[in-house]
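Structure (tokenized):
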């Protein structure tokens, strides 16, 4: 008794210590999961925040004449304005070593010595951020650009402004007849400049300046003049796309689209006629027009306070301009001006009362709405990085900061069909990067979520029947001696690196499946038939012959039979391919069945990932079946039930919670698998259940694109959102699986 008491103390201490360690470990796991959850939310949260426009500062500029245009440098340190007298004035927005905040840094007369005292600017046409096209009262045209350079001579950064003349300081001869323009627009690159204008004598003309090499200060260029047939006698507005491919000409309530690519003739490509309500009291009419970044879309504002987006869509009758979406800017005011960002699909709207709205086209999001000035500002400009605004109201220059980092991301854009520029209809698309500067990221999570489910489904279709049937046979029918060899061997398969499985699937298995598709189909028939035939033949053998074969080795008879059946399938494959598919199954599938075929497809993924999942399901299911109490099976057999009846009615029901958990663990493994999907599929984010096409999964997408994403960008945060979706999906799925498992345990625990 004393000895027992003496041993109880250390044992109790060990039990208590173990209990506390297990408790702390469990709490630590839960705490870690909560931290992961919160960190993912922390990274994701900014993409769903609304835009913010806040005032930074203002100062008087004391202009001697009305201001026609304004702008700001990339770092928001120097702003400029161009007034009617032809002066360009640069102002310091932040204090520097050389200049105080609000001081005049540089002032220059853009009209030059050739102008008279009465010459004034009548219009300033913007193109991009730097280039400004000046039209004066004498009918002269000149192109200037505000340039900014960084200087570090004082030890700190200082922005030095200057004025450049991309086409030279001489006036440009846009019209060979020398007539002034009432409307003018242009586009320009390093080798070519295209001007489209409407002259005072009612001619619509196109003028092309083609440089011999690249445009420099004193470069020589060839001038080509073309006159455009135009059906009306007045024009309200002209816009030329930056790529100089199209010109949009607005006259009253119609927009004429001209193709500028032909150097011989300018043809009318399309006519856009928006549907406007023409009531007797307040008829609607177009009031403004702007080109969206990328030059594929045109924005039209009207007197009813609406902005509509139009772009070309492929139809049965060819490519046509269609209204894609509409934005409500105001209930009682017209849209007086539309300003677009240089690199994104955001745009700003102004009304006569000074009300401003910020919208993003693709996501159809209203990002911000407010009042910057008591009335419509004299001049307005967006900073090159779209993180600031410069607004001129009378003699006040106002600077606003803009926080609008992720305008393209909304919940609907992530999970609903979106109509992107150039596409014939709304679609679910994931395409995060491109080689084009005008590319718009497409971040639909639907294709990669679908790919995750598709990959898991095909893997489970392959793995579950094999794993469960193997577990049942191993735990219930196999002899103990063989079980001790088979079970550890299959468990060791789980340690096999999935990157090797993916490598073998992509480079070895995929070409074999492509070359022997009839053999793969025949395997589904020959293997089960050969098993049943062999089993039936074994059953009919005399007992004397069966007794000579050790019971442990009886199942091994199937191995050469299966190898023979598989060999026959591959040997007969070319014969069947020639007889039924014209010698090429892949061509038959692609051309006759009109089904796309990828070499690395869902079939390859299902087989490869199935092999990775089988050990997980087998091990847990086999343990659950083998752990069924022996008195239950013995009692069932004693009552006259056969082995199969006992298996179906007692063993499997009792082990069902464990079997269900095994399947769920296998599904979790399949959902989170990365390397096999990455290497064995075409990695294409498409919505197609076809077994002959690949997919892209959430896990594989994160692995592929996270290294190349810019930290803090929309792409970066959406990848974290994809991880969050995967995390939540597995959490919810496992929770329901646990609830079902508990129900099964309660239901069959009384057996």
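Design, position by position:
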């Amino acid at each position: 008794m004393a000895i027992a008491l003496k041993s109880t103390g250390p044992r109790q201490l060990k039990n208590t210590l173990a209990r506390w360690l297990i408790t702390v470990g469990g709490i630590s796991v839960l705490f870690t999961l909560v931290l992961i959850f919160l960190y993912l939310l922390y990274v994701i949260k900014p993409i769903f925040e609304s835009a913010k426009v806040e005032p930074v500062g203002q100062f008087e500029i004391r202009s001697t004449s009305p201001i026609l245009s304004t702008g700001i440098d990339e770092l928001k340190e120097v702003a400029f304005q161009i007034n009617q007298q032809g002066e360009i004035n640069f102002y310091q927005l932040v204090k520097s070593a050389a200049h105080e905040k609000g001081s005049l840094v540089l002032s220059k007369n853009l009209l030059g010595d050739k102008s008279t005292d009465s010459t004034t600017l009548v219009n300033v046409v913007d193109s991009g951020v730097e280039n400004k096209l000046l039209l004066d009262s004498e009918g002269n045209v000149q192109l200037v650009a505000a340039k900014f350079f960084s200087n570090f001579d004082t030890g700190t950064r200082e922005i030095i402004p200057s004025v450049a003349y991309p086409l030279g300081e001489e006036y440009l001869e846009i019209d060979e007849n020398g007539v002034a323009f009432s409307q003018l627009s242009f586009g320009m690159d390093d080798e070519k400049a295209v001007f489209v204008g409407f002259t005072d004598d009612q001619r619509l003309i196109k003028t092309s300046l083609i440089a011999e090499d690249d445009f420099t200060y004193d470069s020589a260029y060839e001038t080509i003049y073309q006159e455009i047939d135009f059906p009306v006698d007045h024009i309200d507005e002209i816009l030329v796309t930056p790529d100089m491919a199209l010109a949009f000409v607005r006259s009253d309530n119609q927009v004429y689209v001209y193709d500028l690519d032909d150097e011989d003739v300018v043809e009318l490509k399309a006519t856009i006629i928006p549907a406007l309500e023409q009531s007797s009291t307040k008829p609607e009419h177009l009031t403004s027009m702007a080109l969206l970044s990328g030059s594929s879309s045109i924005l039209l504002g009207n007197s009813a306070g609406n902005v509509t987006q139009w772009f070309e869509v492929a139809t049965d009758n060819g490519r046509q301009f269609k209204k894609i979406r509409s934005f409500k800017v105001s209930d009682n005011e017209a849209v007086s001006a539309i300003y677009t960002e240089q690199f994104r699909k955001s745009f700003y709207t102004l009304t006569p009362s000074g009300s401003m709205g910020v919208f993003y086209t693709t996501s159809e999001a209203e990002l911000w709405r407010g009042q910057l000035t008591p009335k419509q500002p004299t001049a307005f400009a967006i900073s090159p990085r779209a993180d600031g605004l410069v607004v001129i109201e009378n003699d006040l220059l106002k600077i606003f900061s803009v926080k609008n980092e992720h305008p393209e991301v909304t919940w609907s854009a992530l999970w609903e069909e979106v109509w992107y520029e150039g596409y014939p209809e709304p679609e679910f698309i994931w395409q995060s990067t491109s080689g084009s500067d005008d590319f718009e990221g497409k971040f639909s999570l639907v294709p990669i979520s679908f790919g995750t489910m598709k990959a898991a489904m095909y893997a489970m279709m392959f793995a579950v029947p094999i794993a469960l049937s193997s577990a049942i046979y191993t735990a219930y029918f196999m002899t103990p001696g063989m079980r001790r060899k088979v079970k550890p061997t299959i468990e060791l398969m789980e340690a096999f690196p999935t990157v090797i499985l993916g490598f073998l699937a992509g480079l070895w298995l995929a070409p074999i499946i492509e070359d022997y598709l009839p053999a793969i189909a025949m395997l589904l028939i020959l293997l089960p038939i050969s098993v049943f035939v062999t089993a039936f033949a074994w059953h009919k053998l005399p007992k004397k012959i069966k007794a000579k074969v050790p019971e442990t080795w009886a199942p091994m008879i199937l191995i050469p039979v299966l190898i023979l059946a598989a060999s026959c399938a591959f040997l007969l494959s070319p014969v069947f391919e020639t007889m039924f598919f014209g010698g090429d199954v892949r061509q038959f599938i692609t051309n006759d069945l009109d089904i796309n075929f990828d070499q690395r497809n869902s079939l390859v993924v299902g087989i490869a990932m199935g092999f990775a999942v089988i050990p997980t399901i087998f091990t847990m299911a086999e343990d659950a079946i083998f752990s069924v109490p022996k008195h239950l099976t013995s009692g069932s057999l004693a009552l006259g039930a056969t082995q199969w009846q006992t298996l179906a009615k007692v063993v499997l029901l009792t082990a069902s919670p464990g079997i269900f958990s095994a399947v769920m663990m296998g599904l979790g493994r399949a959902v989170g698998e990365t390397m096999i999907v990455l290497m064995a599929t075409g990695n294409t984010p498409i919505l197609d259940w076809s077994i002959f096409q690949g997919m892209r999964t959430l896990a594989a997408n994160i692995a592929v694109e996270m290294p190349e994403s810019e930290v803090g960008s929309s792409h970066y945060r959406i990848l974290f959102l994809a991880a969050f979706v995967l995390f939540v999906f597995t959490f919810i799925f496992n929770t329901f699986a646990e609830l079902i498992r508990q129900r099964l345990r309660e239901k069959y625990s009384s057996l």
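Reviewer-requested clarification: Confidence is low (pLDDT under 50) at residues 1-6. The first helix runs from residue 2 to 44.
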